[in-house]
Amino acid sequence: MEYDVIIIGGGQSALAVAYYLRRTSLRYLLLDGEAHPGGSWQHGWHSLSLFSPALWSSLPGVLMPGGQQYYPTRDETIQYLKAYEDRYRFPVQRPVKVLAVEKDTDGFRLQTTAGDYRARAVVSATGSFVNPYLPDIPGKEDFRGALLHSSRYRLPDAFRHQRVAIVGEGNSGAQILADLAPVADTLWITRQPPSFLPDDIDGKYLFDAATMQYEAMQQGRNFQRPSLGQIVMVPAVKAARDRGVYQHYLPAFDYFYEDGIAWENGRKEAVDTVIFCTGFRPALEHLRPLGIIQPNGKINTRGTMATDIPGLWLVGYGQWTGFASATLIGVGRTARKTVEELNACLNDASAQRE
Ligand code: FAD
């Protein structure tokens, strides 16, 4: 069966696109690599809490419960996405991983773990979680301890009584440090001194600041927005700060040695595990056959529309595919615009055929 649109992914970005697609007459389908609803939130650490308050963590159409002062947990976010999907009865097939997308004169062919699919247009909404970024630090192969990316961290129990280095001064680093400090001997490694938002400023402030920067950019004005790496004082982070967990931190280390991490100035610290909270890169491997992935790992777009392949849109990957598109509140805006473009494009193509 040929679809008008196939959305690759089943996380919040894919659902936001589906929300607007269901208002059209287009035949669409979501293919998600996960076995269950919730996108990559399902793989977050168990104590993860959003840094955006509930009121600022909603997809179009349904408010995330909790209001202005409450930071939803990982499980509540998964539950919200599941309920969202159920409410609108989106056609999702899972687990179906898209392995390769190819284009021919009739549209797109998607090779998947469940066979081939065809579509006139494709929306890629695969996020970045499946493509974690680890800095290339010399000596990795000599290190006898464990290396882990934050995407694989779940619970503190496995690290009880260990000496653990946590790398990264963003929200992930601060939250994982808060989680581990009560059970492990922790070292915090940061490229720059960590910067904490005041207690009364929440994730909404970061979103507002990003909005101001976006508007300034549109008007050709200069506006220096605070980095999203700034740490939001969610309750677990506040409690850790009050226990003195964040008082000490060390600069980025230069290499690994057999028993730990080391600096050019001769300092060495023995550790059992290093956890990298160093972010992600867009998960676009399935689009490689199209030959449009740039050396920086991204794809050229105008808004969310791929400029080099007609009929392909990319939603939810961050600033380069639309302002704040990698957030729950922000993706709705880019999803709506995407569906407007897509609908117009497919209707034009149908009209030309008739
Ligand atoms: P994902 O949730 O990653 O979903 C992508 C889906 O696509 C997954 O189900 C995946 O299995 C599937 N997929 C991938 N490749 C394929 C393929 N080839 N074929 C088929 N399916 C595929 N945002 C906020 O708004 N507020 C916050 O407080 C906040 N906190 C965050 C805290 C952390 C620690 C992190 C990591 C992110 C946070 N974010 C927050 C950012 C953002 O909301 C998430 O990154 C979000 O999960 C992105 O949604 P997505 O749908 O684009 O991608």
Automatic annotation (TrEMBL):
GO terms for molecular function: flavin adenine dinucleotide binding; monooxygenase activity. Keywords: Oxidoreductase. Gene3D superfamilies: FAD/NAD(P)-binding domain. Pfam families: Pyr_redox_3 (PF13738). Coiled coil: none annotated. This is NAD(P)-binding domain-containing protein.
